[in-house]
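tmp note - Serotonin N-acetyltransferase
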Amino acid sequence: MSALSALPFLKPVHLRSPRSSLGGQRRHTLPASEFRCLSPEDAISVFEIEREAFISVSGDCPLHLDEIRHFLNLCPELSLGWFEEGRLVAFIIGSLWDQERLSQEALTLHKPRGTAVHIHVLAVHRTFRQQGKGSILMWRYLQYLRCLPFARRALLMCEDFLVPFYQKCGFEALGPCEVTVGELAFIEMQHPVRGHAFMRRNSGC
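out:
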């Protein structure tokens, strides 16, 4: 059984638009809001959002298009996309890591036997920013990780100015990250994924 089929939490959540109930005027109305794992077919939409979000700030993207496809092929179950009327508006991409702290290799590798989920990138489409969507998506993602029997904690690295945002999401700073990208330096942060067995009994996972 796949990880996805075993997890009720990850079944798409649909919030239907009022237009869908207007006497059948729109027979094929898309859900107003949907959360689901990403697939390789979503890679271009993901990259377009990421490129706009990061290049203007840092001059580079955490993941390039081929790397996005790489992770969405290897571990799509560690991604989560937020769709509005079928349009991707925000996403998270992760992979597994098997060491205590992140290293340069963590940027490109997925370690199937790892117990740490390395969150590579969270990005929100420019027209949907300043609406709290990043925080909501991260909360849903962390809840989802609690349903995965192998996940023990989430790891990420970010620039200094993003530390307060991730602290509000429940992450704690571990100190400077050994990973560098060009001249950029990062703070490494972690979030515990608490006792998975207990969470499964008490969260419907």
